[in-house]
Design the sequence.
C-alpha cells in the first residue's frame, strides 16, 4: 500500500514508498521494510534491489532473501534466497547484519535449503554467527547436538 499520487501534480507524496525507489539516500533501505510490512511488496523489492546494487547493503539482502523464501509478492525461490544470504554472510558490516546473514546461510547449508547440504561449511557459519553474538545461532547449534562456542 502506497500513498496516493498528489492530485494536482501527478507526483508521489514525499511520504510515499514509491518516492523512495529512486532516492539516492541510503535511508531508503529502511523504507523497503515498511513497504513490505504494509503489503507493498513490489515497491519493497525495488527498494531492496537498488540498495543492494548501490551499497551492497546486507540489511536489504536479508529482507529480500526473506521475501524470496516466503514467496509473498514474488515467486518463491529458495536458490535466490540462499544466494542473497551467502552474499551477505561473506561481507562485514558495522551494524551486525552480516552476522545475521551468516546464521541464516548456515541454516540453509545445514538443511539444504536452496543449496546442497554442506554441514562442515554450515557449522563454520553458524559458529561464527554465535561468536558474533547471534543467540539463535547458538540455539540452532545446540538443537543439532553441536557445541556452541
Sequence:
Amino acid at each position: 500500500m502506497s500513498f496516493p499520487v498528489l492530485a494536482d501534480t501527478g507526483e508521489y507524496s514525499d511520504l510515499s514508498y514509491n518516492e523512495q525507489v529512486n532516492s539516492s539516500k541510503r535511508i531508503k533501505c529502511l523504507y523497503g521494510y515498511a513497504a513490505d510490512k504494509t503489503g507493498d511488496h513490489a515497491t519493497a523489492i525495488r527498494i531492496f534491489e537498488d540498495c543492494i546494487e548501490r551499497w551492497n547493503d546486507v540489511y536489504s539482502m536479508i529482507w529480500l532473501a526473506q521475501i524470496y523464501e516466503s514467496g509473498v509478492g514474488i515467486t518463491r525461490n529458495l536458490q535466490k534466497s540462499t544466494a542473497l544470504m551467502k552474499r551477505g554472510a561473506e561481507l562485514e558490516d558495522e551494524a551486525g547484519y552480516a552476522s545475521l546473514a551468516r546464521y541464516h546461510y548456515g541454516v540453509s547449508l545445514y538443511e539444504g535449503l536452496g543449496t546442497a547440504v554442506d554441514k562442515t561449511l554450515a557449522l563454520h557459519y553458524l559458529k561464527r554467527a554465535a561468536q558474533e553474538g547471534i543467540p539463535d545461532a547458538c540455539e540452532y547449534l545446540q538443537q543439532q547436538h553441536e557445541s556452541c562456542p
Summary: Residues 1-10 have pLDDT under 50 and may be disordered.
